[in-house]
Amino acid sequence: MSTVELTKDTFEQAVTADGIVLVDFWAEWCGPCKQFAPIYGRVSEANTDITFGKVDTEDQPELAGAFDIRSIPTLMIFRDGVMVYSQPGALPEAPLVDLIKQARELDMDEVRKQIAAHENGGHEGADAQA
């Protein structure tokens, strides 16, 4: 699958879908972004079951602001509607492939349990007091 341009109108629907979604926040003037683009493209072609999105921070300043993007490129990974990774910086191909492997192997029930515990101040269960 080739990469898809994400906008403020399409972003939420894309990242809340089931499966894995990678999002590359980039800009045309950004040298590291241009170096990362062919790597991102090759990896997307090798992982056709994953959505690879791109957000042009110049064209979509609302999205960049909503995610407090201060450095580009910034890569985010969403799995089943949950952000599981967010880090600025361009990655070489092998670490990007490894990151995708880790995202595939996540136990999302465990991830959701950890998120719930964190949101409850570290207390799990229905009896937790906020």
Order of helices and strands: EHEHEHEEHH
What would the principal axes of the Cα set say about the shape? Answer: globular
H/I helix tally:
5
Main β sheet profile: 5 strands, mixed
Record field, number of beta strands: 5
Average pLDDT reading? 90
Category by helix and strand content: alpha/beta
Termini separation (Å)?
43 Å
What fraction of residues sit in β-strands?
Answer: 15-25%
Task: From the alpha carbons, calculate the radius of gyration and give it in angstroms.
Answer: 16 Å
**Quaternary organisation:** single chain
Q: How much helical structure, as a percent, in the residues?
A: 40-55%
Name the strands of the widest sheet in spatial order.
1-3-2-4-5
